[in-house]
């Protein structure tokens, strides 16, 4: 048993959010923002979790699993799940330091869960298959978050880009991502994923003849986008991001602040820009040529509460040599 | 032969712009902004047109029809067309005073043409069937503007609301429009209809599998909207305006300024808001309950260069008793 640090990347949904709920495909990619989790076995009978981001310490007694509450419960559950797999119960100190903005739809929670399972299992001497790491993190997430799509833990585990369709699972894409960056900008308004998903589905139920073809269009768009991503055809990929954004506007999840950021990015040279995730607030994502990024970032900074520049992250969960 | 004043209303496209170009239906309604045209036969051998809006006088010699140029040519051509129909050539003084903002996509040009044909024929002692007035105005418009859809002259002649499909012509709708208003707000950016139409068609040719279902959705939406308009179901009509706007955003004709106005209207209580016409600039239209109109207008005024409040106009072209 030893002290282990693992890290896993966050993600952005490039195409297909909302439409994915009703069986259309979506594309998500790992981004170069990672969650770092250090796990150290202790002699105690509790899991102690410290989050640097929230400057918060919480303690979870190993023999009172049912009593766990508090913000860090998902982390403790992820570690506990790995312990059960390793068949070794032990006290742990867990230290979390994440570059992924929490609550941003960038998969912060899943990246932490994946890195926690990875580090915990290694700390307990167990070398898990990546698929197993992903599955355990998913199980842990499910305990706390209901029924996630599985996109976030998959991306955090494997990195790169995936196409996903509900009921069919994942295809690993082979994206070419050179000379471009993704710029992410925060509207400053919180997302409310559940509420947005409910509203879109209600609209679809009221006007199926209008909404069904929009979903169909979104599905065709994702198929096209997957090919463009593998060809590195960024110009057309940007155009498809813009179309996808319009479809999200049509189903009612855009806002004034989102539009301001999306159009600011486009006007300043982004190849494409769209809301990412549930909408109603949250982040937008803009695809930019490297040479244009600085201008776009600077323009976005006058309207966004946070601007991040990321690359596609090829590498999924990994042990850090710290 | 006597001095006659006629007037005809402008229009807004409520649903289906752009998609109408490829055979989907559209809905346009006459609005309570009218173009007033006074025609007075003279002893001269020329048509003299004075536009109050442009503070401009232009003269068109009757015996040099081929040499006519200048901004007011469409008016002279409309009058001339009516003269040919009446089989009486005479000098005319024409005075134009329009409430319809020129270049707004609100059919200012067609309303002037319709009122000019109407007033000229009456001044020459000819009582034309409304269908004939509309056709002659269309012929006159065609000489100057290429090949218009025929929506504008139809609305200006008949008033009310129409559903239109290319190749199939018009259906007169029986709209209920009570307790609501339309608020129109100008982005201050000029439209460029030709350029926008070309861009949308180019996008459709590049991505037919993505765009075709969007057009299909837009068509279904118009059928639904026509029923809601005849029922006076404004709540759902507003929702369809929002969806329609998203589809227009998807085909690439929205802008930051358009989105700012659309979302400002919605945030301040509009039942629905969308760009109207070709996009890329121009006006947005918001459907508002009468009680909410003041708040919406006042909010729009901080962003728009012009804000107009209109009703549905039931009456088409008419002789004014002035």
From TrEMBL, chains A, B:
It is an enzyme of class 2 (transferase). It catalyses: (R)-mevalonate + ATP = (R)-5-phosphomevalonate + ADP + H(+). Its cofactor is Mg(2+). Keywords: ATP-binding, Cytoplasm, Isoprene biosynthesis, Kinase, Lipid biosynthesis, Lipid metabolism, Magnesium, Nucleotide-binding, Transferase. GO terms for biological process: isopentenyl diphosphate biosynthetic process, mevalonate pathway. InterPro entries: GHMP_kinase_C_dom, GHMP_kinase_C_sf, GHMP_kinase_N_dom, GHMP_knse_ATP-bd_CS, Mev_gal_kin, Mevalonate/galactokinase, Mevalonate_kinase_arc, Ribosomal_Su5_D2-typ_SF. SUPFAM superfamilies: GHMP Kinase, C-terminal domain (SSF55060), Ribosomal protein S5 domain 2-like (SSF54211). GO terms for molecular function: ATP binding; magnesium ion binding; mevalonate kinase activity. One of its GO terms (cellular component) is cytosol. Catalyzes the phosphorylation of (R)-mevalonate (MVA) to (R)-mevalonate 5-phosphate (MVAP). Functions in the mevalonate (MVA) pathway leading to isopentenyl diphosphate (IPP), a key precursor for the biosynthesis of isoprenoid compounds such as archaeal membrane lipids. This is Mevalonate kinase. It comes from Thermofilum adornatum. The gene is mvk.
């Amino acid at each position: 048993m030893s002290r282990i640090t693992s890290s896993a990347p966050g993600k952005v949904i490039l195409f297909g959010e909302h439409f994915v709920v009703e069986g259309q495909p979506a594309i998500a990619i790992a981004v170069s923002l990672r969650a770092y989790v250090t796990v150290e076995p202790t002699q105690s009978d509790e899991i102690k979790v410290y989050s640097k981001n929230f400057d918060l310490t919480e303690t979870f007694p190993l023999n009172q699993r049912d009593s766990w509450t508090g913000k860090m419960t998902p982390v403790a559950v992820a570690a506990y799940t790995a312990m059960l797999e390793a068949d070794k119960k032990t006290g742990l100190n867990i230290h979390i330091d994440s570059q992924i903005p929490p609550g941003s739809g960038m998969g912060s929670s899943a990246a932490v869960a994946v890195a926690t399972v990875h580090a915990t299992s290694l700390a307990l001497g167990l070398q898990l298959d990546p698929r197993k790491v992903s599955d355990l993190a998913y199980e842990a997430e499910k305990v706390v978050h209901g029924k996630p799509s599985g996109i976030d833990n998959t991306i955090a585990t494997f990195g790169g880009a995936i196409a996903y369709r509900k009921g069919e699972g994942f295809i690993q894409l082979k994206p070419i991502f050179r000379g471009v960056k993704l710029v992410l900008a925060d509207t400053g308004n919180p997302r409310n994923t559940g509420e947005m998903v409910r509203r879109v589905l209600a609209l679809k139920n009221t006007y199926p003849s209008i909404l069904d073809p929009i979903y169909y269009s979104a599905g065709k768009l994702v198929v096209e986008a997957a090919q463009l991503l593998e060809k590195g055809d960024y110009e057309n990929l940007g155009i498809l991001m813009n179309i996808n954004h319009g479809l999200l506007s049509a189903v009612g999840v855009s806002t004034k602040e989102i539009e301001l950021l999306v159009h600011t990015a486009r006007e300043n040279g982004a190849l494409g820009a769209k809301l990412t995730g549930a909408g109603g607030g949250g982040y937008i994502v803009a695809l930019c040529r490297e040479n244009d990024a600085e201008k776009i970032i600077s323009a976005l900074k006058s309207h966004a509460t946070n601007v991040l520049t990321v690359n596609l992250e090829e590498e999924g969960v990994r042990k850090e040599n710290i």
